[in-house]
Write a structure and sequence with these properties.
The protein is an alpha/beta fold. Helices cover 38% and strands 15% of the residues. The protein contains 16 helices and 15 strands. The strands form four sheets. It has a seven-stranded parallel sheet, sandwiched between helices. Strands 10-11-12 form a three-stranded parallel sheet, with helices on one face. A three-stranded parallel sheet has the order 13-14-15, with helices on both faces. Helix 12 links the parallel strand 14 and strand 15. The longest helix has 19 residues.
Length: 421
């Protein structure tokens, strides 16, 4: 099997990342290395540091070549990219990397601050854009208008100012649309996200390819250190994650606790709102092994996001360990929960409390949902299943682009062989 040379561009990447999207990119990079490919990830360190990120330990070597770009004046570099839509400071270095690597595949992952639309035409190779957020149609990435409500129509100029960001005038020039015409494949993470991109004016076709997780050889032992039954929340503590909406439901539900794993900018306010509620506990960030144990011990995972997510990887993290999900009926969650049969959806506080009662009081229903969760993960979202779908989609794109040799390599299983990352 021929080893492919792949260069991935992304704004955030571990250890210069806050989680979520960046972890998904890292997981893909590692999966490609495990299949024998030469993978370079180019990211912008300044973006993370400017937003208050702390430098984290590098971690064990994983075979991925990481190139972190940093400017003498990181704030100015990011501002120029944000305002002009091109890699003003790092353009020469990016061209140098592409000339050196001569990649078979150039894979873009939310390139907002590493190069904007001006990055997309650069280099030779099969060009992929993977939309982990809604940046292609939304300057704030999340379709959360004025920082307070779901977006149903464009008020972009006023909205950017409400987020205290300089308006991006290049968005009104067709620059991004023309840049996307250089892409051979544009990936959405869910059917919902594909539809939302189209609704907000994306002209190009998108292909849906979900996130994945590697299989676990052995299921984690349930966490046994908590004295009462508990539901779980996992994720960054931000207002748009909707955790504050769950607190009143816990006032009506004394039979179980809510354990909150994660941290973020909204943590202080959430702790203030939860003050005095003895059945709500903030436990901070946990290691992957600890997190798996908490999933296994939970009655269910509660996912109350009030914004339009593109996927929701914590749902399949929960499914992988056989834990049912209770998710808000919003965004991509209905398609994931309904496809799996492994949970319940809610819109109101009454529906949330009812879903919690069902899982806790009806062991047979919970057992059925747990079994469905494991089956759905194995059949749909396990690494080997998703990588096979990526290989087929990339092969089709290579054929359409006239890259017959690359298409043959992908059709022969270039993304399928090897152990999972």
């Amino acid at each position: 099997m021929r080893s492919l040379c792949i260069v991935m561009f992304t704004t955030f990447y571990p250890p210069y990342s806050f989680g979520g999207d960046a972890i998904g990119v890292q997981r893909m990079a590692r999966a490609l290395v495990a299949r024998g490919h030469d993978v370079t990830v180019v990211h912008d360190e300044d973006s993370y540091l400017i937003l208050g990120g702390k430098v984290q330990p590098e971690g064990a070597a994983d075979g991925v070549r990481r190139i972190g770009l940093r400017a003498k004046n990181g704030m100015l570099s990011n501002l120029l990219t944000q305002q002009l839509g091109r890699p003003v400071t790092h353009g020469a270095r990016i061209r140098e990397i592409l000339d050196e690597r001569k990649p078979d595949i150039i894979w873009h992952n939310n390139t907002s601050l590493i190069g904007g639309p001006g990055l997309l035409p650069m280099g030779e190779g099969l060009k992929i854009y993977e939309a982990h957020e809604h940046w292609l149609v939304c300057p704030s990435h999340v379709l959360w208008r004025y920082g307070r409500e779901l977006c149903d129509e464009r008020h972009c100029m006023k909205c950017q100012l409400s987020f205290k960001r300089p308006p991006q005038l290049w968005r009104h020039t067709g620059m991004l649309d023309r840049a996307l015409d250089h892409m051979d494949l544009i990936v959405a993470k869910s059917e919902f996200s594909r539809a939302k991109h189209s609704e907000f004016g994306l002209r190009q076709e998108m292909t849906v390819l979900p996130y994945f997780l590697p299989d676990l050889p052995d299921l984690a032992e349930p966490y046994a250190g908590h004295p009462r039954p508990y539901f779980l929340f996992v994720g960054r503590l931000e207002k748009i994650k909707g955790l504050q909406d769950v607190f009143p439901a816990m006032d009506r539900y004394p039979d179980a606790d809510l354990l909150i794993l994660g941290d973020g900018d909204y943590a202080g306010e959430l702790k203030r709102l939860a003050a005095g509620r003895r059945n709500i506990q903030f436990l901070g960030r946990k290691s992957p092994d600890e997190l798996n144990a908490y999933y296994r011990g939970a009655l269910g995972l509660i996912v109350p996001s009030i914004c339009y997510e593109t996927f929701g990887i914590i749902l399949i993290e929960s499914f992988r360990l056989g834990t049912p999900v209770i998710a808000r009926r919003l965004g991509p969650f209905p398609e994931i929960v309904e496809r799996s049969g492994a949970g319940a959806l809610f819109e109101t506080e009454d529906e949330l409390v009812g879903a919690m009662q069902t899982i806790q009081s009806d062991p047979e229903t919970r057992a059925q949902r747990s079994k469905a969760a494991l089956a759905a993960f194995a059949g749909v979202w396990r690494e080997d299943r998703v990588m096979q779908a990526y290989g087929a989609a990339f092969a089709g794109a290579a054929r359409r682009a006239g890259r017959a040799e690359l298409a043959r390599a992908l059709e022969a299983g270039a993304f399928e062989s090897g152990a999972g990352a």
